[in-house]
Amino acid sequence: MARSFKVASYNIHKGVGTDRKRDPARILNVLNEVGADIVCLQEADLRFGTRASVLPRFLIEGHTDYLPVPLDAQGDSMGWHGNAILAKRGVAVERHDIIHIPCLEPRGVVTARVAVAGTPVSVFGMHLDLSGLWRARQARTIAALADAARGHGPVVLMGDLNEWRSAAGAFREFGRRFTLLDPGPSFPSRRPLGRLDRIMHCGGLTVQDCGVHRSALATVASDHLPVWAEFAL
Questions:
Q1: Is the dihedral of CA 73, 76, 79, 85 positive or negative?
Q2: Is the backbone peptide bond immediately before 188 cis, with ω within 30 degrees of 0?
Q3: pLDDT per residue over 89-103, tens digit each?
Q4: Cα(231)–Cα(11) distance, rounded to whole angstroms?
Q5: CATH class label, 4-232
Q6: Residues 6+ apart with CB under 8 A from 28
Q7: pTM of full prediction above 0.85
């Protein structure tokens, strides 16, 4: 039985690529390229109206090995304030939840506990505020909740932190309890400069490798590139 697994975080920009075309199939093909066991998505729902999912379920199930974690939070949405989690078929989802966080603009966090090689792993997906003050508050809240989840097994946190500075408040808040990985610059996708997309983990996991997924398709599919990490239990 495998004792390692791969996670990825991807801001899909509501399915709109750098060519200004909305193409959900492109996003799914990029996810197939990455090949992670668990994926946290940001901007996975439309912003207005019913906030319908950008990635129709029939497309996900027909063109990938993933299934959306059923958050049941916003009608036709796949996620919660645009955040969603996908798990590969065969990865059992033991529980899931949505978390309200302090915010200036609509923000939320999604979480799930999944079974990896028989070990429960808690996953937190997020998209933090544009305001630095609110990002630090959000990070403090999320870090405390994720730290409490360590009582049930290892914890991984992923998302678009919207943070350009390595010494910023959000990083300090997370860094008090978790190890922050730096996969590399992921935004903007054509000429990445910003390390906005991050993955963090607790001491119960050993990182084997991490990076930014760069391909011709990923460069055009969204304005962010996916980031990924491989862990050993």
A1: positive
A2: yes
A3: 999 999 999 988 877
A4: 21
A5: alpha beta
A6: 55, 59, 60, 63, 64
A7: yes
